[in-house]
TrEMBL record:
<keyword id="KW-0812">Transmembrane</keyword>
<keyword id="KW-1133">Transmembrane helix</keyword>
<keyword id="KW-0408">Iron</keyword>
<comment type="similarity">
    <text>Belongs to the cytochrome b560 family.</text>
</comment>
<keyword id="KW-0479">Metal-binding</keyword>
<dbReference type="InterPro" id="IPR000701">
    <property type="entry name" value="SuccDH_FuR_B_TM-su"/>
</dbReference>
<comment type="function">
    <text>Membrane-anchoring subunit of succinate dehydrogenase (SDH).</text>
</comment>
<dbReference type="Pfam" id="PF01127">
    <property type="entry name" value="Sdh_cyt"/>
</dbReference>
<feature type="transmembrane region" description="Helical">
    <location>
        <begin position="31"/>
        <end position="52"/>
    </location>
</feature>
<dbReference type="InterPro" id="IPR034804">
    <property type="entry name" value="SQR/QFR_C/D"/>
</dbReference>
<protein>
    <recommendedName>
        <fullName>Succinate dehydrogenase cytochrome b556 subunit</fullName>
    </recommendedName>
</protein>
<keyword id="KW-0349">Heme</keyword>
<dbReference type="InterPro" id="IPR014314">
    <property type="entry name" value="Succ_DH_cytb556"/>
</dbReference>
<feature type="transmembrane region" description="Helical">
    <location>
        <begin position="110"/>
        <end position="128"/>
    </location>
</feature>
<keyword id="KW-0472">Membrane</keyword>
<comment type="subunit">
    <text>Part of an enzyme complex containing four subunits: a flavoprotein, an iron-sulfur protein, plus two membrane-anchoring proteins, SdhC and SdhD. The complex can form homotrimers.</text>
</comment>
<feature type="transmembrane region" description="Helical">
    <location>
        <begin position="72"/>
        <end position="90"/>
    </location>
</feature>
Length: 129
């Protein structure tokens, strides 16, 4: 058993802490929000490139690797952000103990992850093939 050595500060390794699945989903919801913001900046840069340079058009860059990556990341992040946001909204709306426990159960969390994985694979397939 670990005992604290007094008033000295101690380093807490986040990798040593075992977070529950709901906490990981909440963190991923925030991370995908950040990814969406960065992706939107990428889309704005792409629009700027199309407007400024007359030789660049949307049809000429349609199959470019960077555009495919941007589309895949954006739509996969949006899907996860939307699904986990819907789960958060349902948990806030249904505050009765039984319903709240069902919404925050690990089965619903794994269902969210499986749904997101299937949709993301479909998005990646459509973007790249």
């Amino acid at each position: 058993m670990y005992t604290h050595p007094g008033n000295r500060p101690r380093f807490l390794s986040l990798m040593a802490i075992k977070f529950p699945l709901n906490a990981k989903l909440s963190a991923m919801h925030r991370i995908t929000g950040l990814i969406l913001t960065v992706s939107l900046l990428g889309y704005l840069a792409l629009v700027h490139l199309i407007i400024i340079h007359p030789t660049v058009s949307l049809t000429s860059i349609h199959d470019h690797c960077i555009v495919n990556c941007l589309n895949s990341v954006f739509w996969s992040a949006l899907t996860f952000h939307w699904l986990s946001g819907l789960r958060h909204l349902l948990a806030e709306h249904f505050t009765e103990p039984n319903t709240y426990q069902i919404i925050n159960s690990s089965k619903v969390s794994y269902l969210l992850l499986i749904t997101w994985l299937i949709i993301s694979l479909s998005i990646i397939y459509q973007a790249w093939y």
